[in-house]
Design a protein that fits this description.
The complex is a heterodimer.
Chain A: H1 3-19, H2 21-24, H3 27-52, H4 60-76, H5 81-103, H6 108-128, H7 130-133, E1 139-140, H8 147-175, H9 177-187, H10 189-194, H11 199-225, E2 227-228, H12 230-233, H13 236-249, H14 256-274, H15 279-293, H16 301-316
Helix pairs in contact in A: 3-8, 3-9, 3-11, 3-13, 3-14, 4-5, 4-6, 4-11, 5-11, 8-9, 8-11, 9-11, 13-14, 14-15
Chain B: E1 6-15, E2 18-28, E3 33-37, H1 44-52, E4 59-64, E5 67-68, H2 74-80, E6 82-85, H3 97-107, H4 114-128, H5 143-156, E7 161-165, H6 173-188, E8 192-196, H7 200-206, E9 209-214, E10 217-222, H8 224-228, H9 231-238, H10 240-251
Parallel strand pairs in B: 3-8, 3-9, 6-7, 7-8
Antiparallel strand pairs in B: 1-2, 1-4, 4-5, 9-10
The chains are: A mainly alpha, B alpha/beta.
Chain lengths: 319, 253
């Protein structure tokens, strides 16, 4: 088995594990599985622009928030739920396409700061435009009928479906010319231009891909919780968490994002349950240590391990 | 006479108050090896930048194979068949040597599929003598190796015109001989070459025509013997002693 097909197999097994939670777990476990699938979709999305292309975007929460509001408003206008999700997806993508032409002229730290600004501007506009969005009072969305069990299963299936779709697009990008172009841009944008890569178009396409599934996730989240408000929808914590998850798993890889999202979410649960007072501080320290000592992310553990083992062996050999 | 492959007319480039290029005009015929020489700061690299669209000409017109390309962007130049190497090499550092070359074949060459690009890249690595290093990371190559990698990447782009910006800078004389042979083999493939160079051995053994740039102006254009005897070139660049040596060398064959 090649490394690639081995990764696809692992991901398939992980999808089955998440999908099977209603068979053996309670509502808490199902909720955890939904959260993992949701963050995996967001992390896979971020990976297009932040991992493959190397542009450190903090715009995730803007796309999620706009998706939430686009979906909720469409649904409240009487559209079926899935249609609302589709419209939210397209809306987030179109927003990224329009924004990308402007913001992708910035590089490095400037791009990072600019993209955080986008989240704040989107939040303020949403909060101020009370006649459309309900302002700070938020918006209610009709609950799905059928009781908590049916709702949990439905949204588990939905989030897993979004995650699988994001993974499928990642695989396609990874294997084709487009993904190659993004990697060239990540390593040396001027050189990429010189070998014939239309860098502007590729960057905007990657930015749009990084927004599409965020829009879907936002709309699905709004339908799931039944209530959204500007502060939770455009959350700065989320916009920082997603890139951290990706770095933790391995940015620019296919399996890294879902690994990072799962590891982060499970660690967060573990520390929250065991250290009520200091959970965030401990989690922060653990993440800094992991990223510092594993620059390629968790996926790099086997390689890092064989390097350490090799060094030990070569130290023993002369004796 | 056939249509020139590249034609510049009245090309100028200003940076603020500095005139880096002034009224530069010349035409290259297909299949020629032409050298572009001049003192440091004469505007040689700026000229290449303007031709490939890395910088936009302030005045004048650039025509490549009958099309006005004055306003093109670098990726369009690459796709049209205008390739260049950099004085300071520009690899994709965390990719392997073969992946670097594949990039040229994928985006500017004739290969849209990754697998086809890989086999085209293998051919170019063979041609430039890098085949044994194909799987190494590009950042692990020596300077001479990186310059060869630049060449292989440019060749994978299937260029009509290749501009070599000091490919021999920093080489020892053995490496220069190797590079000379390689450039001859590239020309034998029918690729027109514009070579920017300070090493006179390279210029006088390779080029059939020499352009001399000084303070952004084209001060001479002729065959190597004419250039070695050109008073303005001697004054601005070569120096009397060196020019005499070159003339003696050429007189002796």
């Amino acid at each position: 088995m090649t490394a690639r097909s081995w990764h696809y197999f692992l991901f398939g097994a992980w999808v089955l594990a998440l999908a099977s939670t209603p068979l053996w777990g309670g509502n808490y476990v199902i909720r955890l599985a939904i959260t993992i699938a949701m963050y995996s979709a967001l992390t896979l999305s971020w990976n297009f622009i932040g991992g493959f292309t190397g542009y450190p975007s903090f715009a995730t929460a803007a796309f999620v928030g706009l998706g939430s509001y686009a979906g909720a408003l469409t649904q409240n206008a009487g559209a079926p739920m899935l249609v609302a999700w589709l419209i939210a997806t397209i809306f987030a993508g179109a927003f990224a396409a329009a924004l990308g032409g402007i913001i992708l002229r910035l590089k490095g730290h400037y791009f990072a700061i600019g993209s955080i600004g986008v989240v704040e501007v989107a939040r303020l506009v949403t909060a101020s435009w009370g006649s459309l969005t309900g302002g700070g009072d938020g918006l209610n969305v009709a609950f799905l009928p059928g009781g908590p069990d049916v709702v949990a299963r439905t949204f588990l299936a939905a989030m897993i479906a979004i995650m699988v779709a994001a993974f499928a697009v990642t695989v396609a990008v990874d294997r084709t010319r487009f993904g190659f172009a993004l990697r060239c841009i990540q390593q040396n944008e001027d050189a990429a231009d010189m070998v014939g890569v239309n860098t502007t178009r590729c960057k905007i396409a990657a930015f749009v891909l990084s927004a599409l599934f965020c829009g879907t996730v936002g709309a699905a989240y709004a339908s799931w919780t039944g209530y959204i408000d500007p502060n939770e929808s455009f959350s700065l914590l989320m916009t920082i968490k997603v890139p951290v998850m990706c770095l933790l798993g391995g940015a620019g890889t296919v399996l890294g994002p879902p690994v990072g999202a799962a590891a982060f979410t499970l660690l967060e649960e573990f520390f929250w349950a065991n250290f009520l007072d200091y959970n965030r501080a401990i989690l922060g320290a653990v993440i800094v240590i992991l990223i510092f000592f594993l620059p390629g992310g968790l996926l790099n553990i086997p390689r890092a391990w064989s390097r350490i083992a090799g060094r030990r062996r070569s130290r023993k050999a002369p004796a | 006479m056939t249509m020139p492959i590249l034609e510049l007319a009245g090309v100028g480039k200003t940076f603020g108050g500095v005139q880096a290029l002034r009224q530069v005009g010349f035409a290259l015929r297909e299949g020629q090896i032409v050298a572009l020489i001049g003192p440091n700061g004469a505007g040689k690299t700026t000229l290449v930048n303007v031709v490939t669209g890395a910088q936009r000409a302030s005045q004048g017109r650039i025509v490549f194979r009958g099309t006005d390309v004055t306003a093109q962007r670098p990726f369009q130049a690459a796709r049209a068949g205008l390739a260049r190497t950099f004085q300071i090499v520009q690899p994709f550092p965390r990719m392997s040597v073969i992946e670097n070359v594949m990039a040229g074949a994928l985006f500017a060459g004739a290969h849209a599929r990754v697998a086809d690009a890989r086999s085209a890249a293998r051919d170019e690595l063979e041609f430039t003598g890098l085949a044994a290093l194909a799987q190494r990371p590009a950042s692990a190559l020596t300077l001479a190796g990186r310059k060869r990698l630049e060449l292989a990447k440019s060749l994978a782009m299937r260029p009509r015109l290749l501009m070599l910006d000091e490919v021999n800078a920093g080489f020892n004389s053995g490496e220069i001989d190797g590079a000379l042979a390689l450039i001859r083999r590239i020309a034998a493939r029918g690729i027109t070459i514009l070579i920017i160079e300070h090493v006179m051995k390279v210029i006088f053994s390779l080029a059939e025509r020499v352009l001399v740039l000084h303070h952004g102006e084209l001060i001479a254009d002729g065959n190597p013997a004419e250039i070695a005897g050109h008073p303005r070139v001697i004054e601005a660049y070569l120096g009397e002693k060196f020019a005499r040596r070159v003339r003696e060398l050429q007189a002796n064959g």
